[in-house]
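We keep the chain:
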Amino acid sequence: MVKNIKLILKSSLDHWIILVVTGFMGTGILGSCESSPHATESAPEAPFFWENANLYFLLTDRFCNGDPSNDVNFNRTGDTGKLRGFEGGDMKGVIRKLREDYFTELGITALWITPFFEQVHGSTDESTGNTYGYHGYWIRDWTAIDPNFGTEQELAELVETAHSKGIRIVMDVVINHTGPVTKIDPVWPAEWIRTGPKCTYKDYSTTVTCTLVENLPDIRTESLEPVELPPPLLTRWEERGRLETELNELDAFFTRTGYPRAPRYYLIKWLTDFIRKYGIDGYRLDTAKHIEEACWTELGKEARIAFQEWKELHPNKVLDNNDFYMVGEVYGYGISSGREYSFGDRTVDYFSCSINSLINFDFKKDALKDYESLFASYSAKLHHELRGKGVLNYLTSHDDGDPFDITREKPMEAGTKLLLAPGASQLYYGDESCRELVIPGTLGDATLRGLMNWEEIGTGFTRNDHPVDEVLEHYRKLGQFRRSHPSVGAGDHKMLSSSPYTFSRIFISGGYKDRVLVGLDLEAGEKTLEVGKLFTNGTKLFDYYSNTFGTVKKGKVTFTTPWGIVLLAEN
């Protein structure tokens, strides 16, 4: 084990990093999302572990418009508040970026896309302006894909293209509510939903057995009473020639499982169909704390059955032996809470309900701490109290009105802390390119949901004195490093030196072993590092950041680069 790192530095800049690794075993027109492939050194293949996943979360409608012909459907042409209507993004746009290796270059290992189910056809009349279901969370039909997002064939192509790049697909799951009632979207039958009371969050029942907001009908997920299918749904199936098929599949599902024909079991059947048919790799569970935890246990059971069936039918398309993955959005949960979330009158261990990981709402405030306080505390939690489970760290998202660095004043620091922190990482689309979050004229969460800033990439554009292309390159190099070395997110953290600040991460799984050595707040120039027993003399090391090589001599290696970041791995 290396006890100290000796650095010889010439010249200085404000903020620099050294990482040494050894492995063992504003908005534009969304339609303008063309870009040229970016050449990078191919990263070595490493086993994939969800604990080290690097997820990219995007709103399909705001990312890339691959097919302008599907921009308007169901006569959704009414006036809306700013950024509260459909903007044209679709699955074809995501597929385009997959083929261009945009995500591969970022070191992304999983894509989380917003719900693609058919949305309500009408708009809501709100104080923020009329709004359509562009975000995907206002579902009208769980058995159909909204044509604004794409087709079944395009979903199949998206999953297959992602898999060909070694990228998993995480599907956003909504069980808590239907879409709102509009002039052309009627309320579901009373035995399916409740329209009140509104949640007050005083205890468990006032968080779960209630509606999130006005005009968002809450599905009776607690009920075990059989219900008939909603008449409008039957009518749509008949119009689309799917009625007999859908009914026969439901009969087979309920016969196999023995579940009662209660609301939540219909939804479990419809949601797991997408795994069985397309090979979806994981779920992100929307509004998880607003639903009885038994529902997640049952969904997880059926999801894993469906995933195994898909693997058996498609042995040549299986990426690895990982089980189906579920990450929950328990709003307000943070890693400091450990395994339990408190409602005041009771606590719930969601990790015991088929859920592998929870979104970590602590991270945006923890990122204000110094490196060691952040990294050491996270590693301690993940390797002790949360051993075998995980958290998904994020700094910005689609509905967090108080993100870290909302004005993009410190994007390099944001990328460094997010991508080097223990746990899985979640980039929100445009984090890597300084996409503007504060958009004049928007109200509420629409300000976080602007169009992906493709027009700023590759043009020399600067936001708050930060060149967009330099920020993007920073995210690419750190992301590639994380993808190639599971120890970054999944390894056990240990500080080696406080000045200069250095630490190691060691990860062992079966016969695979990976070691990482990191130094932060350093200077640029010539860097001579003592590598101790990590590398033997004569070992050739590759620097991911400068794309250069060095050789270990007398227990040391020297690099001279214009950057203060060095990412080294054995060649």
About this structure: The mean pLDDT is 91. Residues 16 and 522 are 5 Å apart (CA to CA). The chain has 14 helices and 25 strands. The domain at 51-72+91-122+132-179+264-491 is CATH 3.20.20.80 (TIM Barrel).
